[in-house]
Design goal:
Shape: elongated
Number of helices: 7
Largest sheet: 4 strands, antiparallel
Strand content: 15-25%
Distance between the termini: 28 Å
Length: 214
């Protein structure tokens, strides 16, 4: 998925016609990918499954895609190739889900599944040479329309501004940079430069979306 559409960009840039839609969509995808790379995470909402090896003994897990809207299941390896699902009452989303942290709230839950537990009832960690390892978490994570509209609007604006920077309307700006590339689209000719070359202009606006760690 992308953080904006060709229609979003055209409305913001005052562009009409459809001949350049394919290229605009490609540039939006490039900008979205570069934003994800810089932020160290995927930002759009989706249902995903994260799988972990040995935990560190902490009583929480930090998911890859956040904020977390809901958790479908957490499964813990209970045998060489089998997994057992934790009861929904054994864990909870921390706060409003914005940090992407899932807390274990039942200190005996992991022990009851496999006779293994982490230090302090956490995920993983050594206790008598035994470890809880391999966890599968299925959840809805990322910025969700209708719930995180403020963040989505900010990201959409950044994507559209990046595309504008990648393909400025001023011919002199294009002519003065060796970074630009040319491409014919229908009856129009577009000159643009890679998203990686314009990202530095937007890092300040993106820093609040970068991955956090505990």
């Amino acid at each position: 998925m992308a953080l904006a559409t060709a229609a979003d960009y055209k409305l913001r840039a005052g562009v009409s016609g459809t001949d350049s839609d394919a290229l605009i969509t490609e540039l939006i995808a490039d900008a979205t990918a570069e934003i994800s790379r810089y932020c160290g995470r995927e930002l759009e909402s989706a249902t995903v499954t994260d799988e972990y090896g040995d935990g560190a003994g902490e009583p929480y897990l930090l998911v890859n895609r956040y904020p977390v809207t809901s958790v479908t299941s957490i499964a813990v390896r209970s045998g060489d190739s089998t997994y057992t699902t934790l009861a929904a009452t054994d864990y909870e989303i921390r706060g409003d889900g914005s940090a992407g942290v899932i807390d274990i709230v039942s200190s005996s839950a992991l022990w009851n599944i496999s006779g293994r537990w982490g230090d302090g009832g956490g995920f993983g960690g050594d206790r008598g040479g035994r470890r809880n390892n391999s966890y599968k978490i299925t959840y809805v994570g990322g910025y969700l329309s209708g719930t995180h509209d403020t963040e989505l609007q900010a990201l959409k604006a950044i994507v559209c501004d990046m595309v504008a920077a990648m393909s400025p309307t001023d011919p002199a700006a294009r002519a003065n940079s060796r970074l630009y590339q040319s491409e014919n689209v229908g009856y129009q000719s577009w000159t643009y430069r890679p998203a990686s070359e314009v990202l530095s202009q937007f890092e300040g606006r993106l820093d609040r979306f970068r991955r956090v760690s505990l």
